[in-house]
Amino acid sequence: MTVQNKAVVLGANYYIGLSIIRCLGRTGVPVVAVEYQKEGAYGLHSKYLSEQLIGPNYKKEPEALKDFLIEYAKKQEAKPVLYPTADPYVEFIDAYLDELSEYFLITQKEKGLWTRLIDKDDLYVLAEQHGVRVPKTIQTTRQNLIETVESELGYPCLVKPADSTKFVAKFRRKLFKAQNRQELEESLKKAKDADIEVVVQQLVQGFDDHMYTFDAYLNQESKVTHWMTAQKHRQYPIHFGASVYTMQRYVPELHAIGAPFLEKIGYKGFAEIEFKKDAQTGEYYLIEINVRTTNFNQMIADVGLNMPLIAYKELTGQPIGSRVIKEDTGQVFHYMYEDLHASRAYVKAGDLTWGQILKSYKASKTGAVWAADDPKPGIQFIGKFMKRMAGRVTGRNR
Asked: Among residues of the chain, what percentage have pLDDT more than 90?
């Protein structure tokens, strides 16, 4: 009897983890999800999950979680393949990469590379070294900071964190936008009071549909074997948030920029580079890199690139070949729950009309949570939402 490697997914309380579970489980791969609590982890209800583990909290007890995972892996007949579902899990794996690699199959082999690419300062330095265009950035340690920003960047400008995870946890947004000196000073003070390192950055002009992605898989020789591109249309929070409506679209220019960069830095595994196209010049600026599975992973799989499965096959010694999506499929990723909030905000801001938004619903869509062949996570998600709404109503009526 052939022993099959298990896939261990870190995190099941968000739809990214759920999409990995489904991408692998639908093909017969035994999938194990690791969470620190069952409450709210709707991904644990997927029928494609073979096993669930409740372990230490990655934030509070990272050392204990590392030991927990290693003890589990030691009991397996073949090394499991390890998947992070969010940046904190990426940083956790990166911190213990040497130890975890003895017992798990992990795409990235160079310790510290993932963390460097998550850190905006390190990423932009690396990108500039390889000739990739990035927004002009000013460090907050510069003398006469405000005057320097006003002379070199002007308004509006952005105050962005080096560590997005910490910033989002504190402020529930990815950055601050400053329209004038007063807003810039207030934003800098908020970050300083929270002890969060930030930079001031150029705002690349263009609406949210000027955001594009290059989604690629690089094999263990750091060569791009699979890739596609996409165009964002709506985000939440609007203008500087996560994708809630993104359409696959073939943009070969992004491969010409992104593929050589990722190959030169020795990247391995899945990566998504986010670009913004300047509305005035047409030039593409690298904004950030997601070094873990992305929000619209399921849509990428639906158009023919099952990235979690590609990684699994390569790491377990199976051929992966190569494939590029060189046409516009029209397939859309749609996270309806957050898109409803985003749509109201776009209409209120005068950016879009309800007619434009409703027209976009005609496209062939991949949902974030609901799946007809795996309904229980969606039912759990709706229950979680209804419970939250009931709590708000009860609170207002007290």
From this structure: 88
